[in-house]
Amino acid sequence: MRPPAFGVPPHRPGRARSDDPQHSDASSATLASATPGEPAGDHAFDIREFARTARGNLRDQLDLSGIAPGNLPVEVLRLVRTLRDLERATMQRMRNVLVTATHKDARVTAFLTTWAFEKFWIADALDAVLDAAGEERASTEFTAAPRRSLRERIERRGPVRRALAANMAGPALVDAHITTQLVDEWIGQTAYRKLGELASTLGSVVELVLDVKSRHIRFFTEEAQRRLTDSRRGRRLTRKELRRMAWPVGATELPSDERAAFEATVFGGASGPTERGRIASLIASLPGMQSVAPMVATRLAP
Amino acid sequence: MAFDIDKYTTNSKSVAWDDLDFDAFDTDPLPPETLRTLRYMADVEYHTVCYLRDLLTTPSHKEPEIGAFMTMWNREEFWHGEALATVLGKHGITLDFDELKANRVKLGWKDRLDPIKQSLMGGLVGHDFVAVHMSWGAVNEWSANAAYLRLAKQQNHPVLGELLKRIAAQETKHVAFYASQARARLADSKKAQVITRFALRKFWRPVGSGISPDSEVEHVMGALFAGSEGRKLIQDVDSHIAKLPGMEGLRIVENSLERFNISAEDEVPSGELVAA
């Protein structure tokens, strides 16, 4: 398997498959023409095309033939479960974003609606992997309490404190949310690539998931570039947010041993420094984010 | 009967209208008052993500079944908005993301404080607050379903009628989820019954009240539910609510019609008055 390159992946509309056979490409023109949509100039990413060609249940596209009970290493199974849990926690992510001014941006919420739908089915695909491997979907071995550190307390805030802080921060917080999500997508992309390297039998599954996620990365990249270029306040808030985040997004709720295993598997070992450096250079390529890139990379280390 | 979440998620689709001939609106356009109602309905559907926000402030989203439902429900409602916006677009009425954003910005401080209020209530009430949300959702979906079917029947437009029936069919599934959740949670807890009854009786308003001016709510309620047939539909919704544990005797939807002075009497055609 050859994983997609980092950064903005090439857009492959031909590979997009609508979840609904009745929504053909031909008919999609009806929507575009009949509903005056987004201004074409400002946004290259077509939200409506993304929504229309959302990729739902992936099971009929999964090649699980190489997976059998006992042939996936423990570290692979742990990573599959952790990634599945992170994908499935999307509603928690949605809450943290929606209690802020981000919920007013109809273009962003339209994206998030389809993004959550696709992530739901990615989690389901990972469940299918665990089923094929004859594994329990829930881990019973690793159930330690989440890691708690003073520095990450901000990430454990409930909706009230988030909403109050967001009202103070104002609309520029949308820029920080978009960028945080982009960095998280890059981290996720690294994790899935690692999964493919560790278990060649998962190659096609990983490729499929990365293909679905490529449009998420494309949206967040375009939005982050545009927003950070346009807003000084957005850049400042985003730097603050990136500095204090726990990675991957949702890490503060993972059992501490699972979180440690994720860090060790994805960003540890001989390839760890290279992977972390790659994330740092991607962050540094965003407007005004050079100064925080090394700190995020450091936090990814096991 | 228990709601089968796996079946629901597997079958969840965006509402389809590609096979419907929307060019029929060119030769058989909808009257302005119907477009006004559709605009209201589209605003409500697009606003679902904001209702989702309020639901997510309760502990309910951590339950896998509810999280799964919310993911699909939110997307299906978004597509209802897209479908209705397409009908409006055929009549020269634009409803794009910028306009939706402007409408959401206009909601001001009340909207900003809503999640805080919801969270605090959730904190005070505890897990029973989920029952309030589920019952509230059931009432909204029952009334939305009644509204779509009523409009389809009133208009008797071959394309609009079919589209609205498809939307209503999805709303029926949403009803099934919310009602089954509400029923189970209310049956389990007397406290949940008391709080839900209080919340519905004191605070429930027709869907869309918080996001549209009263003049629009009144127009839509009047256009859809004035007269004996409309009133009967609303009484049916109230009777569904009243069957939920602890909700006996509630008539919140009919009360809201009366607040807007929507008559239950059928209009007598002027010709008959003259004849009399």
Describe the structure.
Chain A: InterPro entries: RNR-like. The complex is a heterodimer of chains A (302) and B (276). Chain A is mostly helical and 302 residues long. Chain A has one domain: Ribonucleotide Reductase, subunit A (Orthogonal Bundle). Helix content of chain A is 59%, strand content 0%. Chain B is mainly α and 276 residues long. Chain B has one domain: Ribonucleotide Reductase, subunit A (Orthogonal Bundle). In chain B, 74% of the residues lie in helices and 0% in strands. Chain B has 14 helices and no strands. In chain B, helix 5 packs antiparallel against helix 9 and helix 8 crosses helix 10 (190-203). Chain B is globular and about 55 Å long. The termini of chain B are far apart. At the A-B interface, helix 1, helix 2, helix 4, helix 5 and helix 6 of A face helix 4, helix 5, helix 6 and helix 7 of B.
Offer a few descriptive terms.
heterodimer; A: 302 residues; mainly alpha; Ribonucleotide Reductase, subunit A; 12 helices; globular; B: 276 residues; 14 helices
Summed up:
The complex is a heterodimer of chains A (302) and B (276). Chain A is mostly helical.
Distance from N terminus to C terminus of chain A (CA atoms, Å) equals 27 Å
C-alpha Rg of chain A, in Å?
Answer: 19 Å
Helical element count of chain B? Answer: 14
Task: Extract low-pLDDT stretches of chain B.
Answer: none
Show the largest interface. Answer: A-B, 50 and 52 residues
Q: Based on DSSP secondary structure assignment, what is the total number of beta strands of chain B? A: 0
